[in-house]
Amino acid sequence: MSDAPDGIDGRSDNVDDPTPDGGHAAATPSTHTVRLELVDEPGQLLAALHPIADNGGNLLSIYHERGNKTPRGRIPVEVDFEATQDRFEEIVDALRTEGVNVMQAGTERYAEEVTLLLFGHLIDTDLSDTLSRIEACESASVADVSLAAPQGTEEVSSARLRLEARAGETETALAAVRELADEKELRLVEPLTGVEA
């Protein structure tokens, strides 16, 4: 007997329900992948698996990248499971409702990436505070930071930021960074958008 919640041990009672006429449901399950970002605390992985099981997902595999933390100290986790398309959409909605950061679901990306450059007195204006305030914006998170201070921390420095924004919320994220840069008197170089290479 498994201690795992229903559906997490590889079985699901909801994926292939018989129809009243004795046949099987018209929708057949297919394999789906979700990429999650979890807080590095005990129980977070199990909590993220509950919405999958509770909504009829049949767990196939988990790829847990504990040694590859994101800049926010979170852990990327990839989960493969079987579900009908309708149940897959319900699972993604349930994960987000539970506060699980869904970075990618199937082929649809829930995070758009943009790279920005900041110039100015980044150290003097508290780079840690700048990054924390960007993180506090619900539309974006900082995926990567590269700092260059060739003249030392007392002089002007630059930082390359790779931001991940929720799908469709890139402009909201950029607006928050613009406001922060103005407040701290930093120069912001934004990516070109709408231009084909």
From TrEMBL:
InterPro entries named among the record's database cross-references: ACT-like_dom_sf, ACT_ThrD-II-like
Q: Which parts of this chain are annotated as the region Disordered?
A: 1-30
Which SUPFAM superfamilies would you find in this protein's record? Answer: ACT-like
User: Would you say which domain of life the source belongs to?
Assistant: Archaea
What's the protein called, per UniProt? Answer: Amino acid-binding protein
